[in-house]
Amino acid sequence: MQTENNCIVIFGASGDLTHRKLIPALYNLYKIGRLSEHFSVLGVARTDMTDDIFREKMRAALIEHEKAEGETLENFCSHLYYQSVNTSDAADYVKLLPRLDDLHDTYQTAGNTLYYLSTPPSLYGVIPECLAAHGLNTEEYGWKRLIVEKPFGYDIKTAKALDVQIHRFFEEHQIYRIDHYLGKETVQNLLVLRFSNGLFEPLWSRNFIDYVEITGAEALGVEQRGGYYDGSGAMRDMFQNHLLQVLAMVAMEPPAIINADSMRDEVAKVLHCLHPLSEEDLQHNLVLGQYIAAEIDGKQVNGYLQETGVPADSNTETYMALRCEIDNWRWAGVPFYVRTGKRLPTRVTEVVIHFKTTPHPVFSQNAPENKLIIRIQPDEGISMRFGLKKPGAGFEAKEVSMDFRYSDLSSAANLMTAYERLLLDAMKGDATLFSRTDAVHACWKFVQPILDYKTANGRVYEYEAGTWGPTEADKLIAREGRVWRKPSGMMKKKV
Ligand code: BG6
What we know:
Helix content is about 35%, strand content about 20%. It has 14 helices and 17 strands.
């Protein structure tokens, strides 16, 4: 089904995200026929640029990132426009009025407009107010939706203040807080795996699950984003949003139906059940780290403190590991170990469900563990590990695996990227995969004591680039007789 005719206004159009993610996503949606022919994109930023220069830049990015070419590329680019606006000056938004009138007429959009805030966060509260000053928020003439990029606030106080600011001009049903992890096919698949099979759900609780591991590892360092990252750190950059969303997908109750309200009710409910962490809990259950220079594959890589834009005495964490629990009937007492970091040995995001062992070890002292590995990226798929008889004499059990890879599906080539899926959903008015205000607050409520603890105690351990984080993180999990899984770049070969 195609989207309704609409105009997409991207604020921050001269920035990185626009040419790296947003325009490629829109191009791909156009290419597969999911965008109405009557769409237009109006890029907005301070920089002076003509429509033609903007088109040229986007064309170059599409050729580079998407190998775009030919008629499709040219047709797509003809829908792109640009308007320079001083985005912090309400008066200057008057320039948008004739541009938008024109685009709505030309493309018969009936006034439908999607605003995308891809600007520095300091403008997230300002732009809605400036739009409202010119009546560009009202839905008398077509729908008006606002996509807000992360970070949604810097802590609980600023997140609440931002919410109040935006809600003065846009209603909750118009606001789409984007968390690109929710756009990932395999994060959504967690729900399908859990709720469309009778097999897993009965086991999905403290009765059968021993513990859960969630890993968001990245091999890259902070690259050119040191300036941004230093004010953020792993906790705000990955944990507060992406990983807590993944945790919610693993732990939430089944929604009655899949729609924006019932899904997001369940997400918010489980996030509210996260056990609040006291200072004493954090002393034992939190490890922060920062990577130091090392040689990886014969190449010397910088430590975090040597990265561009990072102050030489920075105490920002590039790694964090946390043991947390969920206080509800389903999960009471089950530890969730969550870790994320930059400059780890490989890029991998996965969830590992470790099932309890048999009550009595009949075959060997070291019976293989039963676990379900849900690989979110790369090599998207699911691997079930269990024990079978080792061929030969005796009764020795060995771990084998049963694997499913997304790439084996014939339709795998049609996997949408996260931004494609989320932009499409926003244009369709489906907010299921966007964070609702109560869930965002629940995440901040849980994270705030961790931020405060870090400010007060500040202990950040060093780890060498290319390793699995500080050894203290191993101790954290070893205390309960466990070890972190060391995922490799690939899932095991099929048995
Ligand atoms: C972004 C963070 O939100 O997510 C980055 O700002 C991080 O620091 C990225 O690298 C990870 O996303 P993905 O999709 O590559 O796992």
